[in-house]
Amino acid sequence: MIGPPGAGKGTQARLLVEKTGFYHFITSREGKEYIAKHKAEDLETARQEKLYKEGILFEPEWLLRAQKERVGEILADNNIAGIVFDGSPRTLFEAENLPAFLSESVGKENIVGIVVDVSAEETKKRAGERLVCNKNENHVVSTRLNIGVKIGDKCPICDGVLQKRDLDAEIDERVRQYQERTVPGIEYLKKNYKVFIINGAQPVEKIHADIMAALQF
Ligand SMILES: [Zn+2]
Which of 104, 151, 178, 183 is the most buried (most CB within 10 A)? Predict the structure, then answer.
């Protein structure tokens, strides 16, 4: 499941996981867990932790190593019928290597790319609709999806207060990174695997329905 920042791919991955029972592979979370497990014995992994804390993406070669180990563990669990990769592949390197690795276990025909697509303009508009908790920046609420929520409301998760954050520069940078690093990966996937482009500028339920129809579930 791939898409530009703010496309709602995380929401769509979660809905797909709820419907299918597939394993929800959130790249950033899996990376952090791998770091916690291996940083003591592995300098390269310890270095990734430093990058992550500075807000820099994991190095692709290291990420692939971590992904291979975790995917091996997940596929060894017979109760898992599939994996939804949430936020992968994010680079051309990952697009060339992760599906190729998966092909060895599950077959190329069982790998499907879903691009939840929205325009750069829509991404920026949506970023402006996000309110962020003043106590924890991971607590984010969209005024588009949660009608009536406004600045100064109580955070739904903790006792913080929702604020607007000036994200323009940050969003521009994330959009630029997506176009420079991720789009070439999508182009590669299109040439080598089944890829569905889903219109992400629709209501959440309609996007989900389009994804289920594309996957023939
Ligand atoms: Zn909060």
Answer: 178
